[in-house]
Automatic annotation (TrEMBL):
SUPFAM superfamilies listed in its UniProt record: Stabilizer of iron transporter SufD (SSF101960)
Organism (species): Lactuca virosa
The protein's name: Protein ABCI7, chloroplastic
InterPro entries membership: Fe-S_cluster_assembly_SufBD, SUF_FeS_clus_asmbl_SufBD_core, SUF_FeS_clus_asmbl_SufBD_sf, SufBD_N
Domain of life: Eukaryota
């Protein structure tokens, strides 16, 4: 078992970049002052060069394309074309690639990857969520497809749209949303595969000055899967674009769960968020998918002047789980906070954190920091931590720190001296370790349910024997 926590405290540059893999981390705030906004350049499309392509990647892309309906909106087709082009020169990642040096993706590559099909009877999915709140705004997505019959969107304020790109009736909002498709720069291989294979685009649009009360819940359910002895790996590609105009505010809760049992499947999800001047987005993210699944998530954020973005994440599921977070600040007085807790509840658990903060020469008076804290609770568990700072400006305050250890014997002795058995004491200390992150979720009900979920996972796996971490 491996657990870690990371806290970057960043008053950052106009283009800091965070790449977060399967680690537990906590992060505080990123503020930018006196920042000269960056300029995004347009990318010219180049003709395809199939000879430079990875055959395995092309095979997946072609399978995904063949599974989708031929008709789609012009905006979605533009995204697919852009993603397809980037795949022509993007190989499958290996340990020789620095971002994947400690991440083994062979579980996916050795499987027979098949696109998840459109749900035929979504009403049979009664196991919506352990964190379900039927009274809140919510949109349900099963295997990448929006299911209106299981969603609750009544009560949205005027000026807010949540739904499929294809269902947008306002030309003004459609044209505004299409300005962000595709991105000026592509993400990694999995970002591109999502762009090729996403059956639709979920749009969350908040007009200028509009504030949404209460969180919007996006519930992702992986219903289609194979048993663990099968080589088949159904893949879904949900994609969400959030656009919050100047002065707007919204809270978003993403929750990823699986269907019944320990099925094998691959969720390859992308969320892109554009935050206007003085706007605010509060982002909660919970991942509790099957321990035989692959979960790969890409979150890309672009912040304008005086905007705020806060992420709180708890991730406990997946045989392979990876979250790439990329934040670009393009205006001054920008605040970004990242707080994450990951739990790998397995004796061979592996945790990887690769955090990179870039401060360019115009980002004077940037204040940035990272702190990663990790627990190794089994002798064969591993933690790989690589915090990075790339600073060109000369008037900044930037720092990073990391610690890796087992639970403290003094703390265990203190609890045992008060009549608490060793196993219960260990579980209590692990839960307390993650409490700093869990306590940042927006509602008390959600915090309590997440805490109970973590405790349930720890019950059968916390060892009686204490081992030292490396």
């Amino acid at each position: 078992m491996a657990v870690s926590a990371f806290t970057p405290i960043i008053r950052a540059s106009p283009s800091p970049s965070f790449t977060l893999s399967t680690s537990q981390y906590q992060s505080n705030f990123i503020r930018t002052r006196k920042v000269k906004p960056g300029v995004l350049t347009q990318r010219r499309y180049l003709p395809p060069i199939a000879a430079l392509s990875d055959p395995f990647v092309l095979e997946i892309a072609e399978t995904l394309e063949d599974s989708l309906p031929s008709s789609s909106s012009s905006g979605l087709q533009k995204l697919r074309d852009f993603a397809s082009e980037s795949l022509l020169s993007t190989p499958w990642p290996s340990r020789k690639d620095e971002p994947f040096r400690f991440t083994d993706t062979s579980f996916i590559k050795q499987s027979e990857i098949i696109p998840a099909s459109s749900p035929t009877s979504p009403e049979s999915s009664n196991h919506i969520s352990a964190f379900e709140d039927t009274q809140s705004l919510n949109l349900t997505i099963i295997d990448g497809y929006i299911i209106d019959s299981l969603s609750q969107l009544s009560g949205l304020p005027d000026g807010v749209f949540v739904g499929s790109l294809s269902s947008l009736s306002s030309n003004e909002i459609t044209n505004r949303v299409l300005e962000f498709l595709p991105s000026s720069e592509p993400g990694d291989l999995f970002w591109s595969l999502n762009g090729v294979g996403s059956p639709d685009l979920v749009v969350v649009y908040v007009q200028e000055g509009c504030k949404v009360e209460g969180p919007l819940r996006l519930r992702y359910i992986s219903n289609e899967g194979s048993d663990k002895v099968s080589k088949k790996l159904p893949v879904s590609n949900p994609r969400v674009l959030v656009v919050v105009e100047k002065g707007g505010e919204i809270g978003i809760l993403e929750e990823f769960i699986g269907g019944d049992g320990d099925l094998s499947y691959w969720t390859n999800s992308v969320m892109e968020i554009a935050i206007g001047e003085e706007a605010k987005v509060s982002h909660s993210y919970i991942q509790t998918q099957s321990l035989n699944s692959a979960h790969i998530k890409w979150t890309s954020i672009r912040q304008e002047k005086s905007s705020t973005y806060e992420l709180v994440e708890v991730s406990t599921g997946g045989k392979l789980s990876r979250h790439n977070v990329h934040v670009q600040q393009v205006g001054s007085d920008t605040i970004t906070g990242l707080s994450t807790f990951h739990l790998s509840a397995h004796s061979l658990g592996q945790v990887v954190f690769d955090g990179n903060i870039k401060v360019n020469r115009y980002a004077q008076q940037t204040d940035a920091g990272q702190l990663t804290r990790s627990l190794i609770l089994e002798p064969r568990a591993t933690v790989n931590v690589k915090p990075n700072l790339q600073i060109i400006a000369d008037d900044v305050k930037c720092s990073h720190g990391a610690s890796i250890c087992d639970l403290e014997e003094d703390q265990l002795f203190y609890l045992q001296a008060r009549g608490i058995d060793r196993q219960t004491a260990r579980k209590s200390l692990i839960v307390s370790f993650g409490a700093e992150v869990i306590d940042r979720f927006p509602t008390a009900d959600l915090r309590k349910k997440v805490e109970l979920h973590v405790k349930k996972l720890l019950d059968p796996v916390v060892p009686l024997k204490v081992t030292s971490g490396v």
